[in-house]
Amino acid sequence: MGHRLKRHGAALAAGSALFFALTARLAAQTAAEDDAQPSEAILPPADGSEADAATSLAGPTVDSVAAPAFATVDNTAPMLAANTDLVTWLAAIPIILPLIGAAVTLTFRKNEGLQSWTTLICLALASLSAVGLNAIVATQGPLVMAMGNWMPPFGIVIAVDALSAILVLVTCLVGLVGVSYARGDVGTEGTRFGFYTFYLLLICGVCGAFSTGDIFNLYVWFEVFLISSFGLIVFGGTRIQLDGAVKYGVLNFIATTTFLIAVGALYGMTGTLNMADIRGALAVAETGPVITIGALFVFAFAMKAAAFPLHFWLPASYHTPKVIVAALFAGLLTKV
């Protein structure tokens, strides 16, 4: 041990000496380059006036020095001038309500009645807001909401068109019907272990995935409903459920990692995460990298959707959870 420490100490000392020698050499080279640069000579005025020459040699006076001009940076330039109106908030309400409900059910996780009623009310209100969202989109066109009033590509955007609005409505209605059945199927033990919290987070994640206009935010919403699904699939704690949950979790973790790699590669190629900007950037990009990144996205989405031939995890997982969980997974999770 002592000889090993001595060898490490000698190597560290040699490395330090080499570092300081290189630093000194670089400093000397920089100083020599500065000395080699010619300096400007101060010449007297052309009219030969000694007073003017003396003034020019002495330098400018205080009164003649102008104040330095600094560039003014407007940090609010990428922001919207006006606040978000109430109509535009309809794009985010189906996401916000389940998220608030999940926080309430987690806080009162020992109160079974309060959790079930909170979940039912939140999903009913989310369904009503989704109906209003469809009406607004049908009459006024797509709704775009910049979070924090930051314009893209600096901020995250929620963009809801006709297809997104319909999918959000279907998600809320499926969740509402499912929780109506779950109130009689899920016992006290499941309620205490956070069934309704995971349930609401799954609905929140699916609605967020349908509404986002940012590719990385899409990955975030995928993570939200996948983590929620991990919690839902193990309710009951039987051996077959745990076995199905392990297969489900490992293979979806591979898909999620592939998705994140594809997002990083796409950002490195286009320089933006906004979906509208990505569309314009891909139109002028090279074909090879686009095909590679597209293949990564196809692999990730196909594994999440259990598409052939990446469907082998689904038969081992979907028959293990409760009926309401399996119905929710089949109706929403693999369809995103």
Strand count? 2
Calculate the terminal CA-CA distance, rounded to whole Å.
Answer: 58 Å
Helix-strand makeup class: mainly alpha
Overall 3D shape? globular
Q: Radius of gyration, Cα only, in angstroms?
A: 31 Å
Query: Major sheet, described briefly?
Result: 2 strands, antiparallel
Q: Strands across the major sheet, in which order?
A: 1-2
Please provide the ordered H/E string of secondary-structure elements: HHHHEEHHHHHHHH
| Count of runs of 4 or more consecutive helical residues | 12
Could you tell me the mean pLDDT? 76
Q: How would you describe the oligomerization state of the chains in this entry? A: single chain
**Proportion of β residues?**
under 5%
Helix content: 55-70%
Low-confidence stretches: 38-46, 48-76
Overall description:
With 336 residues, this protein is mostly helical. The chain is built from twelve helices and two strands; from the N terminus they run ααααββαααααααα. The two termini are 58 Å apart. The chain has a two-stranded antiparallel ribbon. It has helices spanning 2-36, 50-58, 93-107, 112-140, 162-185, 188-192, 195-211, 215-233, 239-270, 275-282, 287-304, 323-331; strands at residues 143-146, 157-160. It is globular. Helix 4 (112-140) runs antiparallel to helix 5 (162-185), helix 4 (112-140) runs parallel beside helix 7 and helix 8 runs antiparallel to helix 9.
